[in-house]
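Field reference: sequence -> structure
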Amino acid sequence: MRLLPEAPGEARAGARKLPGIEQVLTFSYGDLDRTLRTMRLRSGASLLQGCLPLLLQEIPADNLIERIGSERYEQLQACYLELCLLSLWFSLEQQRVFEAITAAKIPLMVLKGADIALTCYPQPDLRYFDDVDLMVHPEDLHTTTTILEQLGYTYHQEYRFEAISQQRSGFVYARQVANGYVVFEVHTAPHANELGVTFDVPGLWRRARAVTLHGVQIQAMGLEDLLLFLCWHYRSHFFDRLIWLYDVAMLLLAYGSELDWIRLYRLARRQGMLATTYYVLGWCRQLFKITLPSEAHLERFAPPAYVQWLVKRLIGDDTSAVLRPSMVNGRKLLQHLMVDNLKSLGLTELRAIFPSPTHLGRLYMEHSRLPLRLFWLYYFWHPFVALKHLWRVVFL
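Structure field:
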């Protein structure tokens, strides 16, 4: 089933065979058929970790009906149809928004999901996303958001603490359509995080590549930056959705031979992303059977021996085991252990105990009755919560 046409000249993976998804989902869930029969059906990118369109593409309908029953199969197809219709809305709205912003002579960069869907996947509807992430220069932010408002979009405040946050770099705008919401998040920089990973924003603009999406020429991250950003995004969200790992595999499949692996290594080292890249690319090789080019030299990205020892001691020899949905604590622990040295590990744990005001506000002020300006009071409470959680993750 396919509702969205392949974009000529945009889908680099068009003639390539998609990496298998059924085997990896079986690894993740164990009994995949039982999961398909019993899982809660809800719309959105989280359904089957974002992999439902890929699974329906891979398994013949007759085979799947025999395994899970025709009624359940029709329900899954209905979910896929809903995703496809919303993807169609996203396509139409992306064209409108891209044309309006570029007409105003504003440099525009599209980030992660929307880029990957149109440049790496053979069919855009195989990669559904909840929002479109864009990046503009800080001086263009007001004009960009004004354009979105003129196109019918309304500002959406994700977190209560955003009203006073001094570290904001993303602003969400949404528009209701026939079967849901089309959402754009406008960034001036990648989100700040508590993992000690920073992105050189001027460098991202200098290394950007030109792409034509929906007939509009805009910019996207350079291939090396995009690969690192996808690895970081997967880690920053606790390796929660398999589709984010699949994105990395699709990028490697489409552009692996064109990547400048020396530049990738230098950028990863500068950004504290060597260990993250090492483990995520290793999972792509292990689970999706992606063959890296000889010049990749993945072992160069490996963290020091003592970091690897910690990972093996606390996670086990097979780190991919944490990708199973039941391994929540393992994923959270590994997120903290993917560091390039002991200094980074210490700083990561220190930030977990004493987070930034923005992170603290998101954790506690959403449902707090305290005035926002008193968020700092939670600094007296949070260290005990963080240490208790760390104890549970490591020892229970």
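Note: The radius of gyration is 21 Å.
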